[in-house]
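Session log. Operator J.P. requested a structure for one protein chain; no other inputs attached. Running the standard single-chain path with token output.
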Amino acid sequence: MKEKTKKLVILTGYFKGESYGLLGPQMAATIINDHTDFDAIVVGVTNQDNLSQLKTALDHFFKDQQKIVGFSSLGGRQDLFDFAGQLKKEGATTILAGPQAGPDYKGEEGWQIHPHRFRGVSDHFTFALHGPAQQILPILASDPDVEISELDGVLCLDENGQMIENPAIPWDDAWLAKVDWQTLYVLKDGAFKPLSVTCAQVLQQIGCQHAAKECQISIDYPQGLVKSGFITICQKGCSFCDVAADKGYMGAVNKTAIKEQLMWLPAGPDGRKIPFELINESPLFSLAAIFDLADELSITLSQINLTLRADYLLKGLKHLEKALEIAQKNDVRILLSSVGFESFDDTILKNLNKGVDRQTNLDAIRAIRALKPKYPAHFGYLKEEGANHGFIHPTPWDNPQISHEINKTISMYQLSLDILPPHSTPLIIHHASGLADWIRQIEVKEEMEFTRVGNTIGWWQTKDQSS
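Structure written below.
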């Protein structure tokens, strides 16, 4: 095979000391490597990494070539937004892609007339790309005279600084089949070093069924405001979920693509496929089918990690038991790696638009605990088994009564023993989520401003308090 001379790097947020794969960026790198004359790698950048060393490593990687650097799944990291801006000023082509690339590039709704709002990062990137990764192919294959602003999925500024936003092409399962998991690197000793992935992902469903239908919901005022009442917004899915707003629900990936994804999973030292997260918010109804596909492919699985909602868990219990019976026979482990409980208070669950109540969460926990003794070696959900269940705290609606009732529930049902994570997750409001609409309505109605922290809204602090 002819050695490739052109290079491309995709930078993405990462956690120190981990070795998990990154489905979106690594699938994009695979598509680029297979269909262009570019050699693409993915570099996971942790909060502890020195960005000066990262810049040096990029200089060494590209040598005298034009730098083409993609940014994906940044998790709102302002340091990486700023790093992209620095590279762009130095002449690099910087591309923003991945979840919420469009909204983050354009900025928060109404920022032009409300200067305190997030103004977007269009000045940090040459252009943005929202939607399927294969839209990058005509851009990379184009000659210098091509007008990028006319291509699918592109967001950019015209010569007058006006925003151009082209619709993305539809998702196509044919492009969701292959992932080369050997494209991941980390920064070590000032250079890019390959990282062996020990846990991957298999995409079985795009989006969340809870986000399939838009509805009107009423969200209470924050506890800290003297005024009480509620704000009504139109919402798809959980009100804090920016992915629900980004993708909604696009249905299942076809069997052929899933089989190829399974085939491309690396094998561990024992010859079995490495553990993987099955990306499907309602996975139990089609979980047994994964074992059927593995049999068809004559491959052996080791562990399947599931992320799901409490109500979907209860609805799919019979399917889970069926899958556990198969897993036990095949010596495969099923781990409930994250159940999105989020809260154990009905007021907070309502405001989060979870679509479940406190009792649903408790019923799900009771069912999980009952399953564990039946399949002790092949079913996991405990913190020490690698699970990290959703628990959002603090929130804008906390008050002494709610806190008392939540603590009472935690104590009564001994949730700290096996369910609650070591640390709760504070409510994060991305500027394109439903809760951001809620905040903006309060700001206009009450003539106040909340602090912006990068692309998120600091619901805990008004702008006057921060000055």
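Operator note: The chain has 16 helices and 21 strands.
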